[in-house]
Specification:
CATH class: Mainly Alpha
CATH superfamily: Protein of unknown function DUF269
Strand content: 5-15%
Shape: globular
Structural class: alpha+beta
Number of domains: 1
Helix content: 40-55%
CATH architecture: Orthogonal Bundle
Strand order of the largest sheet: 1-2-3
Oligomer: single chain
Number of helices: 7
Number of strands: 3
Order of helices and strands: HHHHHEEEHH
Largest sheet: 3 strands, antiparallel
Length: 153
């Protein structure tokens, strides 16, 4: 663990730990074996300079699609931890990078997000990514609380 990771409390949050776990799960060749959490999550961070290097129109590559899926998988795991019900993520994208991300709990659609320009998927910082996941998570938990009978089916 680097000094930056040890000093920054965001690396101790459940979300960041789960994101690292999801990214490591997608690593079939063991590339991330010696990597720090910072380095594993670095592709999610799109600074202004990085975003300027990505064309406005483009098709997402397999790595980007995997990162999008890992993001919603991590949110689904956090929903499961919170409400103790199975949360199933589904990310459906066209080859052009448009689609939807759904997370269902029972028969309830707890998360429904429209995805656009997936080739530019990322966040300004790690804390912005965590803030976005917290918003999605809180809405999902609220929906599950409003419709527990449907979520329990």
């Amino acid at each position: 663990m680097t000094e930056a990771v040890a000093a920054d409390p965001i690396f101790q949050t459940d979300f960041v730990k789960e994101m690292a776990r999801q990214m490591r799960a997608l690593d079939t060749y063991g590339t991330y074996a010696g990597w720090t959490v910072e380095k594993i999550l670095d592709p999610y961070i799109l600074t202004k300079e990085r975003k300027a290097n990505i064309p406005l129109i483009g098709d997402p590559d397999d790595e980007t699609i995997s990162r999008v899926k890992a993001f919603y998988n991590a949110i689904a795991v956090l929903i499961e931890k919170e409400c103790k019900l199975l949360a199933v993520p589904l990310v459906h994208l066209t080859h052009e990078g448009f689609g939807r991300a759904l997370i269902t709990v029972g028969k309830l659609v707890a998360v429904d997000r429209t995805l656009r320009d997936v080739h530019r998927f990322g966040f300004a910082s790690l804390s912005k990514m965590k803030d976005e996941s917290d918003k999605i998570l809180s809405v999902a938990i609220e929906r599950i609380g409003q419709h527990p009978a449907v979520a329990g089916l």
